[in-house]
Design goal:
542 residues, eight-stranded parallel beta sheet, alpha/beta, single chain
Length: 542
């Protein structure tokens, strides 16, 4: 197997562009220019389809469009992603992680390649003469061809590996328990498996989600969705513009879409916390997302990532040279931090976590306080993961909890409070009362600038299986005890993480159904976002 792997990787590496070697240190920026003027908005939606249940304005405040080159991908899959998916899916993610670096380098486009590809497409004189519908067909065909090629290559590389063995074992266990309407969910790994897994997520590709077999009445939930691992891998190996196009088609433009008018795409910065480092410099990720936003006509508006470890080690240069530059000059509408890496939003000195090599808790707090103050001065929100998930272990996940948010409110009691979005609203894990505790903080003195979103709440998906909507009573209790939270709660999907789920295209409609009578849909799907992300008003008016 090792010899076969070496042959496959060596042959593939010969076709790689220069500059794609595994970085021995953090990568350097390769995109040196701003997006040129006069580019056609080739990624702008030509129409927004509105479902009957959709409010007039729908804003998704929590999504991602990065790929495998933008994150420490092996540490990411084998650590936070696997830890947050206990059981068979987590096992598959851990088996996939050792291959992730090779797959990223061989198959995932780097930022410079994508930058040049987009400018070539959007700057072509032929684009101006092409009807929008024909242009979309061209883009979609390019995406389909890329996915087919990636699907074949993934099978060539993973064939014969422990991942394939475990994937097929799980498939064999699932097949007798499920009746898939496309008939492929029980099929073993093959050259078309990744491509087919992603096609089932395309609206209209299948009349419904896989359903329980009639001869399995004792099953309370659908079996683990192993094809979701392949779908997620496919998006991680795609051009970022292709991911944005897939999102847009599913949620906005195709028949049956819910009607998302605008989406916020957050970058992430796991540097130092997860290793080895990413293959694309964060400066290049920022430039590329600036271009994606421009070419989408503002349909996608980006959030820049902030990492207190890097900032503490750089003496504040990260905040000044990267984060504030993105906000002040590149159209970014917010900041994203990731506490499950190993830090609290604030109060690390009071509640420290020992992380090898990290700055001291005091240094983390100093860097974070400067970031919060700079964002407060600009009325720019900071979104942070607030669920007990996506950490390398339980101790890291504890850092996302209410303690750090309480310390933030206390620290800014006598100065302008920063606006914060607690992504995932404390999370849906019933072992933790974080949702209600965050709602109580919204209700407390100094909590008027605290918001939350419902990104990736699987247990709010009312899909007919027993156990669905299990999180609704917990959400209802939090909102009943603290009604002000309904004025701060926003819709979010957490796509592309959501792409691991069956029929993720139904998520906004399912959230609308689950929150009916709990929250004003106009506020949940748009109004509260306009209050939190105040730069959206200028974008809407522009």
């Amino acid at each position: 197997m090792l010899r076969r792997r070496a042959i496959v990787l060596t042959a593939a590496a010969a076709a790689l562009p220069l500059g794609c070697a595994t970085p021995a240190s953090f990568p350097v920026a390769r995109i040196g220019d701003d997006p040129p003027a006069g580019l056609q908005p080739i990624l702008a939606p030509q129409r927004i389809v509105k479902a009957p249940a959709a409010p007039q304005r729908v804003i998704d405040v929590h999504a991602h469009f990065f790929n495998a080159r933008d994150v420490p991908v092996s540490g990411y899959l084998g650590g936070p992603v696997a830890h947050s998916r206990p059981g068979p899916i987590g096992d598959l993610m851990r088996l996939l992680a050792p291959w992730a670096e090779d797959l990223a380098l061989l198959l995932a486009p780097d930022a410079l390649t994508e930058w040049q590809d987009l400018i070539g497409r959007a700057g072509s004189a032929r684009v101006q003469a092409v009807e929008p519908a024909e242009l979309r067909k061209t883009l979609d065909a390019a995406r389909q061809a890329h996915l087919q090629a990636v699907s074949r290559r993934v099978f060539e590389i993973l064939g014969g590996s422990r991942f394939e063995t475990e994937f097929n074992r799980q498939k064999g266990a699932v097949a007798p328990r499920i009746r898939s309407l496309q008939g492929t969910e029980g099929a073993p790994l093959g050259a078309d498996s990744l491509f087919n897994a992603m096609q089932r997520d395309r609206p209209g590709a299948t009349p419904g989600a896989a359903t329980l077999s009639l001869d399995s009445p004792a099953i309370d939930e659908l079996p683990p969705y192993t094809d979701g691992v392949l779908a997620f891998l496919g998006y991680m190996l795609s051009y970022r513009w292709m991911n944005l196009l897939a999102y847009q088609q599913a949620y906005s433009t195709q028949d049956g879409a819910f009607g998302v008018d605008r989406v916020l795409g957050a970058l992430v910065d796991f540097d130092h916390w997860l290793m080895p480092p990413p293959h694309v410099a964060h400066e290049d990720q920022i430039r590329l997302h600036q271009l994606l936003s421009q070419l989408s006509g503002g349909y996608m508006l980006p959030l820049v990532a902030y990492n207190p470890w890097t900032d503490a080690r750089s003496g504040g240069q990260l905040l000044r040279q990267r984060v504030l530059d993105a906000i002040d000059h590149r159209g970014f509408v917010g900041v994203k931090i990731y506490p499950p890496n190993g830090f609290r939003p604030l109060g690390n000195s009071r509640h420290p976590l020992a992380v090898k090599g990290a700055p001291t808790p005091g240094e983390l707090d100093q860097a974070l306080r400067a970031m919060w103050r700079a964002c407060a001065a600009r009325d720019v929100p900071v979104m942070a993961h607030s669920g007990h998930s996506m950490g390398s272990d339980d101790a890291h996940e504890d850092m996302a909890g209410p303690l750090g948010w309480q310390d933030l409110l206390t620290a800014f009691e006598h100065e302008k409070a920063p606006v914060a979005n607690t992504g995932h609203f404390g999370g849906e894990d019933p072992r933790y009362a974080w949702t209600e505790e965050i709602a109580a903080l919204m209700d407390a003195p100094g909590g008027s600038a605290l918001y939350a979103d419902l990104g990736y709440w699987s247990d709010l998906r009312c899909n007919g299986a027993r156990g669905a909507c299990g999180a609704r009573p917990r959400l209802q209790q939090a909102l009943q005890r603290h009604p002000v939270a309904a004025q701060r709660l926003m819709y979010g999907s957490d796509w592309l993480m959501l792409s691991q789920e069956r029929r993720w295209d139904r998520y906004p409609a399912e959230i609308a159904a689950a929150t009916q009578s709990l929250v004003d849909p106009d506020a949940l799907f748009g109004g509260n976002a306009m209050q939190c992300f105040r730069r959206l008003t200028a974008v809407a008016q522009g």
